[in-house]
Amino acid sequence: MDPTVLNTLNAERRARRAAILVTDLGDGSSRIVRESDTVAGGLGEATRQAFRTGRSQAIEVDGRTLFLNAHLPPPRIVVVGAVHISQALAPMARLAGFDVEIIDPRTAFATPERFPEVELHAEWPQDVLGRKPLDAFTALAAVTHDPKIDDFPLLSALEAGCFYVGALGSRKTHAKRIERLLSQGATQAQIDRIHAPIGLDIAASSPAEIAVAVLAQIVQTLRTRGTERAEAAATE
Description:
Blueprint lengths: L2 H12 L4 E6 L5 E5 L6 H13 L3 E5 L2 E8 L4 E5 L3 H12 L3 E5 L15 E3 L3 H7 L6 E5 L4 H14 L3 E4 L3 H13 L4 H4 L2 E2 L11 H17 L3 H9 L1
Parallel strand pairs: 5-6, 5-8, 6-7, 8-9, 9-10
Antiparallel strand pairs: 1-2, 1-4, 3-4
Helix pairs in contact: 3-8
């Protein structure tokens, strides 16, 4: 492999950015395609699909055989709030292949006994996220109902371009949240990305059912990333 291509790929992986190594199996040449790149035709559709699914495959494009080697960062879920929903969500999310972290400064809630085998931070979100920034392959779920705890990570998630941002609360609660976030510099376009009330509408009532709805919505959002951009490009 061309050393320049390899260095570029390694840099993208270190930064937790998705990249696809496209290799022409005929002549051995290769190139890197980033998720933000605009690629037309059959190769464009194939790379968009690979970014959504993470699957590597060989394809035929314009008489050439290309191998798409997808390098996607491991998706993670950061849950703000060590509550009953989080207790159900954490083990389910791990089974689904997500790295999971729980953040809650309330030490009575954020205990290893309540969250065994989960990366747990009994600290304020701003301290944790200062060390471990959010990114495009992170889902942020804010479930404390406490603006002093939830608002900062929500703003951070919107600024970082997290693939999923969800917040617990009624529509009335969310309306007040919108006012606060706008006053703190968020744009309306950013706020429109927040899933609130959080989770798919499956008429969930118990904490475990809400956790199912949240995880399903996170998976749905992860696997449909970029579809809006692709649809817009197809109509141009």
